[in-house]
Amino acid sequence: MSSVIENIGIRKILDSRGNATVEIDITTGNGFGRAAAPSGASTGAMEVVAFPEEGIDSVIGTFNERVKGDLVGVSADETVLIDDILKEIDGTDNLSSLGGNVTVAISLAAAKAAASSFNMPLYQFLGGNLKNEIPYPLGNMINGGAHAGKNAPDIQEFLVVPVGAKNITEAVFANSSVHKKIGELIKVKDGQFTGGKGDEGGWAPNLSNYEALEIQSRACEEISDETGIKVRPSLDLAPSELWDGSKYIYGREGVNRDTGEQIDFVEEIIDTYKMFFVEDPLREGDFDGFSQLTKRVGDGCIICGDDIFVTNAEILSRGIEKKAANAIIIKPNQIGTLSGTYQTVKLAKDNNYIPVVSHRSGETTDETIAHLAVAFGAPLIKTGAIGGERIAKLNELIRIQEEMPSSVMAKLK
Ligand SMILES: O=C(O)[C@@H](CO)OP(=O)(O)O
Ligand SMILES: [Mg+2]
């Protein structure tokens, strides 16, 4: 059984926004792995750079001379070594020479090729034989902010979690029922609604933040009653996109909020709508604002950092010190390697931060993050509710559940 890399190929493919991204194929003596990189629209400033300035075609052009030769002959299961080689070839702190999307796709494709060489699913190769917890899906219901058009809410993501689901099949179907119900409720509210959707498959309606919150909350209640599966509302505010340097500009609402007002606003929403999970309540960099909010509401609500931590262990350790949050979004392409991603997950778990494995708004049908969430023991995965590039991950979780007879849903706090 050889896991030694024999060949590596790169190609330019489409992402769900119609933009270019890369896909990597790795062949070993005995296996094959393929992985594609996603892209964000509301990216954190401290993320690694997705593609070099010269563009995606340039790195594809130089891939053979810069990367291939150094990796052929290395064992695909040597994740840390492979990532070190990539970082050395790149030579920058933010992977701007090769591009974090290129390095992450190589890193993940190598792990998949290794798993395949040992004839194992990726979650088992990375997580071990005893892993049997399936994450709950955070499904995206309404898109606003940078993921939708002008009249959509300022808040970027209105999400739900089917906390009462007994298995992943119940969970993903509960989420899709809420998605349908929200579509109906939006049509009742706005006869002109054309059924448009945003980048992540959530509806993109002409609604204010509060109108969207009301509809989200009502749909959760109705579907919980109809199915007997408790579904709870959640949010990603992504407010770095609203911050003008001194205040948050809620353009749709015509309201500005300073940091104190933003904290009060989020606290009020959490209390009123019994939010289960709130991501990025404040802009990136505002560790103090995060800790104030977490102190006030962190016992009853998951306060999760995305743009503020960018899957970076060093930045997360600052957050841990400041008690900024109690959860962290894990996006492999924010840090550019699988080993870097794992380092951050480990630090999070060691410090009681919940790791939430996440898609990007620009995705492909790559299903790898479903395996990562299981392997890392992440209790939540954020990967949309409908749409081909989103269901690729959800349907993969259904398959993982099926092949793991002892599987249980992860423990939520
Ligand atoms: O903010 C986010 O959490 C993500 C994914 O939902 O969006 P993007 O990929 O645009 O950063
Ligand atoms: Mg986010």
Automatic annotation (TrEMBL):
**Can you tell which superkingdom this protein's organism belongs to?**
Archaea
InterPro entries per the record? Answer: Enolase, Enolase-like_C_sf, Enolase-like_N, Enolase_C, Enolase_CS, Enolase_N
**Reactions performed catalytically:** (2R)-2-phosphoglycerate = phosphoenolpyruvate + H2O
- The residues that the entry says bind (2R)-2-phosphoglycerate are Q156, K331, R360, S361, K382
- Its predominant location is cytoplasm
> Is Secreted among the key words of this record?
yes
Q: Which cofactor does it need?
A: Mg(2+)
Q: How is the cofactor bound?
A: Mg(2+) is required for catalysis and for stabilizing the dimer.
SMART domains in UniProt: Enolase_C (SM01192), Enolase_N (SM01193)
CDD domains under this entry? enolase
What EC number(s) does this enzyme carry?
4.2.1.11
> Which residues make up the binding site for substrate?
H147, E157, E279, D306, S358, H359, R360, S361, K382
Entry-linked Pfam families:
Enolase_C, Enolase_N
Enzyme class of the recorded protein, top EC level:
lyase
Give compartment(s): Cytoplasm; Secreted; Cell surface
Which residue range or ranges hold the Enolase N-terminal domain?
A: 5-126
Q: Name one GO cellular component term.
A: extracellular region
One Gene Ontology term of the biological-process aspect is: glycolytic process
- Please name the catalytic residues of this protein: E200, K331
NCBIfam families given for it? eno (TIGR01060)
Could you tell me what this protein does?
Catalyzes the reversible conversion of 2-phosphoglycerate (2-PG) into phosphoenolpyruvate (PEP). It is essential for the degradation of carbohydrates via glycolysis.
Family per record = Belongs to the enolase family.
Question: What protein is this chain from?
Answer: Enolase
Source species, please? Methanobacterium formicicum (strain DSM 3637 / PP1)
Taxonomy, top ranks, is: Archaea, Methanobacteriati, Methanobacteriota, Methanomada group, Methanobacteria
| Gene name of the encoded protein | eno
